Amino acid sequence: MQTRFEPAQLAAPAIAEADAILRKCVHCGFCMATCPTYRLTGDERDGPRGRIYLIKEMLEAGGSAGPEVTHHLDRCLTCLSCMTTCPSGVDYLHLADIARTRIHNTAKRRPFERLLRWLLARLLPRPGHFAATLKLARFAKPLTPLLQAMAWSRPLAAMLRLAPFRLPAPSDLKGGERFGASGLRRARVLLFQGCAQRVLAARINEAAIRLMTRHGVEVLIAGDEGCCGALSLHMGREDEARDLAARNIASWYGTVNRAGIDALVITASGCGSLIRDYGHLMARSAISGQAARLSDLALDITAFLEDIPLDDPETPMGLKVAWHPPCSLQHGQKIKDAPARMLQRAGFEVYLPADSHLCCGSAGVYNILQPEIADRLLRDKQENIGRTGADIIATANIGCMTQLAKGSQLPVVHVVELLDWATGGPKPQALARLT
Ligand code: SF4
Ligand code: SF4
Question: Which 3 state secondary structure label does DSSP give 394?
Answer without folding.
Answer: strand
